[in-house]
Amino acid sequence: MRQMSTTLEGRRELVKIFRLDDSLIRPTVSEKDIANFFLVISNYLSFIVMHSGINVKDHRDLLTLDVMCDKLIHSPSLESIRELIGMVMTSQGKSSHSAIDIGYNNFLDFMRDERWNTRNAQPRAWLYQNCHEFGHFRTSEEINGLFAGTLPLSFFLARCTDVFGNHFSLEDTENRIAETNEYFGGNKNFQGTDVILSNGSDDPWTLLGVTDGPSAINNYIIGIDGFFHFD
Question: Which InterPro entries match (predicted)?
């Protein structure tokens, strides 16, 4: 996908396979448009990983990590990825053939709406926390992997400044993260007591959780083998 995104011909093929809007084939295509494409596609796959195996409708045995891996191993194609995306769409009450909006400017228009009672209220608040408190950015700067080199830290920092203003710099974000960790203690110096902290062995977020050490003292740490994020 990365190689295809570098040429107009390749981007046209991506638009056709994934049923995208025209953001990648307009006269002017920005690096942010391309990065946003990879982020949106990776979000669908992440949805499967985090919801895998929960006891709700298709998540029980269809939208699972095993099904996704089996499909990508035995049929490693972009069409297989689009089929998985279609399965996620169906679980969300949409047609599996729905088009995918990946335009970066469309993302900005959506996120800049400051009204509290619109459908962007939750994702805007989550983005603000990521930019201002957590620094939770799902980068892919490793050279190997499906999305290798497509989602650098600079892209996520640009999202912060483009939505909330130029004061959301790397330095500001790092300072805010330090303040958050100092206040709550992070997973190494968590000061709470009598807290039940569960960690699924297959949940990527477990790496950020409290599993042992001083933070586990006077708390209840539960490790659940084979469980995911929303189990």
Answer: AB_hydrolase_fold, Peptidase_S28
Separation between Cα atoms, residue 16 and residue 19, nearest integer Å: 5
Q: Is there a single domain that holds both residue 22 and residue 62?
A: yes
226: left (phi over 0), alpha (psi -120 to 50) or beta: left
Regarding whether 118 and 54 lie in a shared domain, the answer is no
Task: Work out how many domains the chain is built from and give that number.
Answer: 3
User: Are 54 and 126 in a shared domain?
Assistant: no
Burial of 135 (0-12, 13-18, 19+ CB in 10 A): buried
Domain around 193: 188-231
CA-CA distance, 11 to 1, in Å (whole number)?
9
Q: What is the pLDDT of residues 174-193, one digit of tens each?
A: 999 999 999 988 888 888 88
